[in-house]
Amino acid sequence: MSVEEKIRMLEQFITRNPGLANVPVLMVNGRPTTLSEALSMLRTGLNTSEVLKSLQSLGLDGEETWILAEEFWRRVVAARPDVKIMALQGYVPVMSPAEALEHIRKRDEIGARLVQMYANLLSFIKERVDT
Amino acid sequence: MPRMGVVTITRPNHDAATYVGSLALKHAIDYMRSRGIIVDDLEGDRARRQPVLDSLSRNNSVFFTGVGHGSENVFTGQWQERIWWVCDCKELKDRVIYLLSCLTGQQLGPDIVNNKGARAYIGYKVEFTWIQAQIQDPLIDPYGKAFFEPVLEIYKNLAEGKTVGEAYLASMDKWNYWIDYWSRSNDPAAPSIVQLLLWDRNGQVLYGDENSVIVQPFQIPVQWLFIAGTLSTAPMIAIGGVVLANEFTKHAVPTGPPRRLG
C-alpha cells in the first residue's frame, strides 16, 4: 500500500473517529505514538518506513502492548483523574485511573486484564483503519 | 412449568458497583411492572440465596435475573453470598436467566443451560466493567448510561414479548450505537469508555434456546384489564377491541428461523 493511500485511510479514520485519534497505538522510535501523530509523520515524510511498519501490527505485540497500555492510562489519569472504573468482580468494585495505572505498572493480575482490554481497543482501531 | 410473566430479581447494594447496578435494574423493574409483569424484587439484604430459593419456589418465576459480583463458576448476592454455583443451580430448570455479573458466561452459564436444563442464559464471559463520572444512577450519569442502556434493552425486549435471541441482538445494537457515539466524541474520557464498551459487548453471550420468551404472546398488561373493565358503551368496546388486537400482534412470538448470534 502506498504512503498516499495510508495517509488517506488515516485521515478517513480520524474524521470518523475523532475520539480515538489521540490514543497511543503504535511505537515509533521506541516512543508511544497516536494515529494523529502518525499521520503528521507520514505527511511530512518523517519516520515513514517505521510508521508504516508499526501500522501493520498496531501495538499488538506482547511487550509493546504493555508500554502502550501504560501510556494510555497515564493520559486518562492526566485528563480525567476523577472518573470511576467499576467492575462486577469482588476484588475491584471500584478504582480510579491512577489505581488502574498502578496495576499496569506492577504488572499484576488486574494490570494484565487492563492490558487485555486495551488490546481489544487496538484490534477495533486496526479493523476500522483497515476498512 | 414456570409461570410466564413472573420474575425474580436480585439487587444487592453492599458496595459501589452493586449499588450502581441495583439502581440501573430498578429501571428494568419499573418497566416490566408497567407491562403487567409480576416482579419479586429481592433488594439489599434480601438478595441472598435462601430468599431467592423461596421466591422461585413460591412464585415459580419463568425469569431469574440479577446484578451481582461473579466469577467463572459463581453468581453472588448481598455481601457476595453465593446464590448459584456450578453443580448447584438445579432450581433454574426451565427458566430464562440473565446474570449481570462478571465471568459467569465461562462456566456457570453453560452449566445452567447444558446440565441443569434452563431454557436460556444471557451473561458475560468477561469482567463486566464500566466507567461512571459519579457513583449514581447510571442512567443520569454521562458515562454510565452507555453501559447500562444495552443491559436494560434486554429487559425491555423480554418484557415486550420478544424472544431471548431478539433481546440479545437488540442489546448488541445498543452496544454498537454507544461504541460509535463515543468513538466520535472529543470528551477526554472517550477512549477509555470505548475500550470498556468493546470489552463488555464482546463478552456478552447467549446460550440455550433463542426462541424462549418470558411472557405469554397475548399476555395483557394489568392496566389494560382495568381500562377494559371501565368501558361500557359499545363504541368504546369496539375501540378497546382494536387496541387489544394491536397489543396481541405486538406480543406475538416471531416464527422466523433462529438467527446466528455474534
List keywords for this structure.
heterodimer; A: 131 residues; mainly alpha; two-stranded antiparallel ribbon; two-stranded antiparallel sheet; 6 helices; 64% helix; elongated; B: 262 residues; alpha/beta; Rossmann fold; 6-stranded mixed sheet; 3-stranded antiparallel sheet; 8 helices; 10 strands; 44% helix; 19% strand
SSE layout and pairing:
The complex is a heterodimer of chains A (about 130) and B (about 260).
Chain A: H1 3-16, E1 24-28, E2 31-34, H2 35-44, H3 48-57, H4 62-79, E3 84-87, E4 94-95, H5 97-106, H6 109-130
Antiparallel strand pairs in A: 1-2, 3-4
Helix pairs in contact in A: 1-2, 4-5, 4-6, 5-6
Chain B: E1 3-11, H1 16-34, E2 38-43, H2 49-59, E3 61-67, E4 70-71, E5 74-76, E6 82-85, E7 96-100, H3 108-115, E8 120-124, E9 129-132, H4 144-159, H5 164-183, H6 190-203, E10 204-208, H7 222-230, H8 234-251
Parallel strand pairs in B: 1-2, 1-3, 3-7, 7-8
Antiparallel strand pairs in B: 4-5, 5-6, 8-10
Helix pairs in contact in B: 1-4, 4-5, 5-6
